[in-house]
Every structure is written in structure tokens, then in C-alpha cells.
Design a protein that fits this description.
heterodimer, A: about 800 residues, alpha+beta, Phenylalanyl-tRNA Synthetase, Chain B, domain 1, Phenylalanyl-tRNA Synthetase, Chain B, domain 3, six-stranded mixed β-sheet, 39 strands, B: about 350 residues, BirA Bifunctional Protein, domain 2, two-stranded antiparallel ribbon
Amino acid sequence: MNVTLNWLKTYIDFEFSPSELSDRLTMLGVEVETIKQLGTGLEGVVVGKVTDVRPHPNADKLVLCQVEVGEAEPLQIVCGAPNVRESMFAPVATIGATLPIGLTIKSAKLRGEVSHGMLCSEKELGFSEDAAGLMELPTDISLGTPLREALGLDDVMFELEVTPNRPDCLSLIGVAREIRAETGNPLKLPAVDLEESETDIGGLTSVTIDAPDLCPRYAARMIQGVKVAESPAWLQQRLESVGVGVINNIVDVTNFVLMEYGQPLHAFDYHKLAENRIVVRRAADGEALTTLDEVARELTTDMLVIADAEKPVALAGIMGGYDSEITETTCDVLLESAYFNPSSVRATAKALGVGTEASYRFERGADPGAVLAALDRAAQLIAELAGGTVCEGTVDVYPGQQPLREIQLRPNRVNFILGIELEATEMEQILSRLGFDVEASGDTYQVTVPTFRSDITREIDLIEEIARVYGYDNIPTTLPKGDIPVPAPDPKVEVRKSVKRFLLAAGMMEAINYSFCDPNCFEKIRLASDSPLRDALPLQNPLSPEMSVLRTSLIPGLLENTQHNRNHQINTIALFEIGGVFVREGDQKEPERIAGVLAGQIGDGIYGNPYRNPDFFDIKGLVEGMLETCGITKYTLQKTDVPTFHPGRNAAVLLAETQVGTFGEVHPEVLENYDLPYKAYLFELDLEALVDAAVFAKHFEPIPIYPKVERDLAIVVDKAVLSDMPTERIYKTGGEWVESVRLFDVYEGEQVPEGKKSLAYTIVYHSATETLTDKAVNALHERVVKHLHQELGAELRM
Amino acid sequence: MKAELEAIKTEALQALKEIETLDALESLRITYFGRRGKLTDVMKGMGKLSKEERPAMGKLSNEVRATLTEAFEDLTEKLQSQQREQQLETEAIDITLPGRKPAYGKAHPVMQIMERIEAIFGQMGFEVVTGPDVETEYYNFDALNTPSDHPARDLHDTFYLTDGHLLRTHTSPVQIRTMENQQPPVRIIVPGKCYRVDYDVSHTPMFHQVEGLLVDKHATFSELKGILTSFARQMFGDQTQMRFRPHYFPFTEPSAEVDISCAVCQGKGCRSCGNTGWVEILGAGAVDPAVFEAVNYDPDEVTGFAFGMGVERIANLQFSIPDIRTFYENDLRFLRQF
């Protein structure tokens, strides 16, 4: 909603500067988004009087003029306009002025004669397309006055952000009322003094409302014998100053009154209405209407239309019909001013995909009380500007008239809610200035709500009114006095924090991807055709096919991030994400996952810390570290057949038989699908499952006081023996004396027979109760070796 | 013999002066103290001396031995320390060679800000709760006093699923979910993802909000101002000025938009605050009685206030990222900066 300073001042007196007014309105809740000085681009253009016109000695079509601009000496200006004559007042662009058309005026010689400026046409000033001659100015303006001032263009426009609850502020008078609340100055409403002809409107037309639920009020007036033409300059300029386009004098008046009162009006060509009458009804099945924008619209039976005796002629509260619009030949006008049901206008406008100044106001709630005032104002202006006479009387069908709303206000409740101590009388004053009628009754007030405040229905609404006029800035700043609730600790938060801390310390960067993804990504990560992960929830109105379903895994996002980075020549990629995915099955429909990717190279590639390629055991280490940081020690790993991974290089993590995640090397085909020239490693775990298994309670274990004994053990076993099989047996055989078993070497090749491999372990023996002797350790160590031989065929490697 | 001892002493002390290395010193030591060393030889002659001569010679020879031993030790120490210094000198390195930095990761900038917000409200007794991203019309709109024909719905361009659910447009549904399951006092903040159909340099279709709610027997608008002022001072610095502007949200009344003084120009007005000196950071207000009614709280028995802020917006007050979509490209050159 746009308003200008000068226009506002026609409805209320105030002394605020533009920036003060902006601040006041903003602090009342009518936020000023921009302030714009109008009439710019006319600096240096002043009012001049042509005092002498002589032929140009060297040109037939040019003349030499002397032009007075309020300075000691007149200016000599060479001019070629046909209408130039002595004593005329015209705009003069002085030296240095830059015109809206982009021309900068310099002192110049035209065919040998000096010209100190330029006399201007409307086109040259950007006012119109009229280039036929000089723009003529009234002769009562003092010479040298800046043109902007002389034409009343010196104005300031405010662009307001009006919240949906305040349709009353979608009008100049509404904004003026806010200024009244601020200043207490009275409103100056337009004086309407209609001269009516003797022809009674009742004999010319009638209004029938068949849908009073959707149209509580419909009023009309008739203006006969108008002449449709261009509006006068003041009206055009008013409308243009707030960004409303001009059309003709009739339509411009309706738009002017719309801006003034916030009441949408519509003018019909009376003679194009079948039987010259109005029926307000729901559209019939299959009816259509071509609206003013020349779009043929199919109507449904829940849409309200304005019809004549036969057919719809307007979409109620939204847009007029093309066939009944005002044209150059219109002579009799039927002017509509009505109040329509907000929900109905909103639903119809939405269904048809149209939005107009009228529908914008009706769907928020117009003022049923302004219907007649706006109608009379517009009728009078049309008669003034387009000739014609206003017929006697008004048709005003008002089936939905409601008594004014009354609300009880408890002053102590106001103070209770706001935390202030305002006198009741001050509250009363604030509400009165806002247009409420306030009656004291005992300790409370009975407040009557004016028709233009449809948003005020409850006591709390009045409290807000008082708060905003009193000033939010005047409300004190205090701290809550209430009890602080004691929340139970959330294990999920703990797991998330621990895991994240671990991953950050491990050099992983945190990523956040959109919750939407491309359904093609499931193919790209080679999900099995029956994978439940393919069953992603689709959006009804996605932004693009690439964002059309909700993700069921974090992996595609991370692979895309890897691709993005690699495409930008970043090859050290270590990313993780913690976030929800969306599945259809189960109670937990938005399970939280944690996933990560390692790709390209590890290290910083500097002297002393060369790059190396990550491998399976890097990703495995991350997964094990995460489990460890959550206190989860009892888990098993086993190979899976998840097709995203290399079939021989992946694992699932199992907590008590339940798979809680997978990790491994990315399948080469998936790498190709993401244009990755190097290997990548991924993990994805179910955070919720970790929460169930996490153990954060800590217990103290005594620090060992007896020395430990280390023994290295290198064995040769069949290749098929997995490295943790000997480990397991060492623990089992060694019993409580084995503190730890560390695999430090794996070797195949020379010196090891074909089909065999060598595994080397460091075993740490330790007792919590005694110092172990060599003899005791040797005995145990030998037993370990013997068991390994018996159970795994392990031979000691010499 | 006395003369011999004196000569050895003089000669040895003289020889020591010439010694420059530990090796040479060792050979010299052997020359005098070795099994066939000069001093050893002289000492061997002790047995041939008379009983009367022996004590004096014994004393003298011990003195000579002691003197020489001390001289050898002094020189050993001196040479050793010289040698260490030389060695240390040769071990000098180019300290401008790169350090071996352990890899360390960084939290996403949006998360860093969110965690800070959580920490500040955590200190004020607000519990972190979360809720689902996929919501119903009821929780996202209706229960928040925004029925379907309400013009305020136009403010949120909503993503719908094909089954009638929607992606929440704000974290406010969690207010409802919490109050449905908990009696006052309530003091929660709700961090989380939200979604709106919007995609340009200043909008991403997914973004993060932190919502706050306090409900008690008598929570006032002035307390809302207090909590948020305390938050803003901790978040943006203790010089931060605040402005509460009347605004409209369907689920709060009175409602406010909250501005802080522009950090770039200290409130004087500049390009980044649109010359107003103020930057909007959040929306807030007293909980609308209709919301209390929706969760079966009695609006005459309890009052409360709520607030909500966009995390990206707050992050960008610090980072001034021209295209906010950069947050979700996960470009490591970007992520490394925060």
C-alpha cells in the first residue's frame, strides 16, 4: 500500500517530517518499507515566461526567444516549437539540468545563435507522449519556481507493509486514522455534497441479492450523461503518485476513492446490463465470464457473481466483466459499492488465480460502514469530472447488517498482560482516538468497535491496540519471575553431541543438505529395485524435479557434495551430516541418521605430511570411534549386500542382532554416476539406535600399579583366517591376564608359503593383583601359542 | 723420581693445552694413565724406593695424579660441552617449514549459530525440544489460529505432500505439541528445519528456525522484552539496542517484530540496514488465547509468550553472505571459513 505525504495531509493535519512520519507509523505497526521522494529528475527545470519571440536569422523553423526565469537578465533560448508565443508560461530547462529523457542541457550555438537553455514539451519532461508543442503552464506562478513545486509534484511516497489483520490501513483515510491515534488531531473527511437530478434511481434499476451469506450489502447509484475522457491532471497525478495507472475519468475516480476509503467500487455501463438490473448470486453450473483482462473464466457454483437479468457481468469483489466495462461510448453509469464475504472472495480469487486491489481488500475485510460514503464521494466526483448528473436516491440492499460489536475491557487485565501500570483513563483515551466508543461500567469498559475494525473481536485485540499506541518502547523490560522447569536430560542430545564432537576432532566437516532430493538418486546409488528406501514421499508442489521427494538416506546428498567439491578441484573430502530422513514405515517416521564420506585424499599434502588415499580402515575407524564415544562396546560387524558398496569391502554394524548402519567402499559404478575419479568411503548409522545402546554413565577403574609385560607373536595362518579370529582366541586363552591384543602387522609374500599369511600381534599381559614373573608369562604365552596352533593351525613364524 | 714426576706433570699439563678433541684427549689420557702410561710407569718404580723415601714420594705422586686427573676431567667436560654445542648447531632446522597440523573439522555455520542460540536460552532455563518436519495442517496452521481461509496463510508458501501432509513452515507446531503433553510452567526452545516455497539469493526452500515459548501463571509482555533483550545482548554484544515494533502473527497477540541496532553502522543508517539503522531479527508476542484454547489451557489461568527467529538470517548478520543458498552447497572452501 502506497500513500504520499501531501495526499495524507488532505485528511489530517500533522507536522511530521517524512522520516518522523515513517518512524511513527512503523512504531504503530504500519511498517514503512521505503520512502521515496517524488518528482525527481526535474532539478533545474523552472517556470519561465516568454517575453520576446523573433525570427532566427539562419533558420526558418527556429525562433529566438527571450525568457524570464526570475533572474536579473532574461535568457536567450532558441526554440522550434510551433506553439511558442510571447507571454506564454512554459517549463525551462536551465543549463546543467538533466531531463528524465536523459538529455543534459548545455549552453549551445544553434545555427550561429546562442541558446542558454531549453523550453520543454511534456514528452521531454517525461509527463506524456505529447511532443507537439511546449507544455503550457498557468500564468499565475511566480517565475523561476521549480517546476516540481509548481506542479505539486514535490511529494514523498511511503510504501507501507500492511499486515493481513489491518485491511483498514489499505486506504489513505485508514492511515490518517493511525496518525490521529498518534497526534489526537481530528480527521478531515471529504465533504460530499451531492446534487441529484429528479430522475429516481428506483425507476431505472434494481438490485437483488440471492446470496446474502456471501454479499451482506450491495449499494448502487446511477450517473447519467457522462462523457468518458482523460482525467484532469490533479487526479492523474494523485493516482500516479501512489503507483496506480490512469485509464479514464470514470475508472480513475473509482480507483481514487478506493485508495481514499479502501472501498472497492465498480462502474458498469448501464446500457450493457440486460434489463438494466443487478442480481447478486452464485454462478450457475457451467457459466463463464470474460473479465476485464480479456480472460474467459469458467465459473463454479460456489463463486459469487454480479449478474444482470441473464448472465454474470462481474466476479464479485474481484474483477468486472469485459462486456459491461466503461468505454468511450458509455453515457450512463451504474456505480457499485458493496461488501462481500472475505472467505468467499478469497476462495474464488485463489481458485481462479487472480488477485486485484479489490480482492486484496475484500478478502481481508472491507468496511461495510464505508459503502455509502465511498459511493456518494465517487458519484459526486464522476459528475464533476465527467459531466452527467447523479440520479436521485441510492439502492442499498443490506441483508447482512450486524449490530456494532461490543467488547468488555478490564483495565487490570491490560496491565496484567503487558506488565505495565497504565491508568484506565489513558486506555480510554487511546481507544477513543482509534475510533472506538468507550463507556465506563463499574471497573470495566464497554467498548464499541467501529465497522472499519473487523479485526477487533476480543479483549486481547483491544489490549494490543492499547499496547501499540502506548508504545512498545514504553513497556518495561523485566525478567521472568516464574519457576524454571527442570527438564529431564535427553539421551539423544547426548549422542548427537558426542558423535559430532568425535567427528569434528577426526577432521570431518559438517554438511547440511536439503531434505528434498532427486528420485533419480536411488538409481545412482544402485539401490535394489525393491529397496524400501526408494519409497520416498513425493512433494505435491516441488520447486524442481531435483527436489521433488523427501530424502530417505543422507548418502546421495553427501555424494553430491563430494561431486560438487571435486568439480571445484577440492580433493580432500571429509564430510558428515546429522539429520532426519523420511520413511513411511514404522513409528519413527523421521529417523535421525548420521552419515559421512571420505574421498580423494587424506592429509594436507605438505612436506612432512604427504597426502595418502583413504581406505576401508579409515571409514571403519570412524565408525568404531563413534560407537566408542557413545560407550557402545558390544557390537558386531558383518559383510552386507548393500549394492551401493563394493561387494568385498563393506560391513554392517549390528547391535544385538539388529543392523544399525553400514559402511564401506563405494561401488565403482556409483563413483561413475557421480563423476568421481577416485575411491570414496561412506558410512551411515541410525542415530536413534545408538541412543538406545549408548552408555554414558562412567565408572572409575583403578589405575594399574603392577608392571605390564609385552610379548610379540608372529604366526602364519591360512589366508582365510580373519585377523580377529586369533585375537579372540588369545583373549580367551589368556584370560584375565591379557590386558590387550594389538595386531601390528599383516604380511603375505616372500618367506610366507603360498595361500598363507603372517599376522603379528603384541600381547600385553598384566595382572591387577601381582607382578607377573617371566616364568608365569612364558607359561601362559606358550599356552596361547599352542591353542592358536590347535584351533587355527597357526605356526609360529621364526 | 721426584724430578720425573714433576716433569710428567709439567709435560702433561703442557700437552693438555694442545688438545682440541675428545679423541686426542683420550689418547693423551692413555699416554699417562694407561697400563703402560708414563705416570703408571713411574708409579711402578715406587716399589724400588726406600722405606724413608716412600711416604714423601707417595704423597707427591698422589698430588701429581690428582692434579692431572682434575685437569683431564676439566678438559673432558669442556670438550664435551663444546661438542654438544657444535652438534646442536648442526641440528638447527628451518622453522618456516610447515607444521604438521592434525586435521580438525568444523561445524556447519548455521549449526554454530544455532548451538549458540541454544546455549544462551539454555542458561535462561529453556529446554530444547524438537518435532517432526512433516506436519499436519492442524499443527502448522489451524491450532495456531490460522484457519484455511485466513489471509495470513498467504504469508507462508507451503510445500505439500501428496497425502495431505505438509512440510512445516515454521517450528511453531512444536508449541502446540508440547502444550498438549505438558502442563505449565513451560519454558522451551525449538530448533529445527522449516520449509517454504522460495528460492532466491535471500531464500532457501529449507531453512532453520529457533522458536521459544514460555507459559506460566503470569508471564507478561515486559518479560518477553526482558528475555529477548538479554538474548540479543549475549548474541550480538552488550551495546546492542533493541526495538519492538507492533506487528501481526495469528498465534500471538500483542505481536511484535524485534529489531536490533545495525552492527555495521551502529544505528546510524547504512546500506546493509536499508538506511534505517535497524535490522529485524525475530518475531514475538504474547500467546494468543485462541492457541491456549486449542491445547486446553485456560487463558484466564495462564499467560505466555513466544518468539521465533530465522537462524540463517542471524548467521548472515555476521557473515554477510550475498547468496544465502551458499549455505547448502557444502563447498569445503566455504565451510572452512567459519
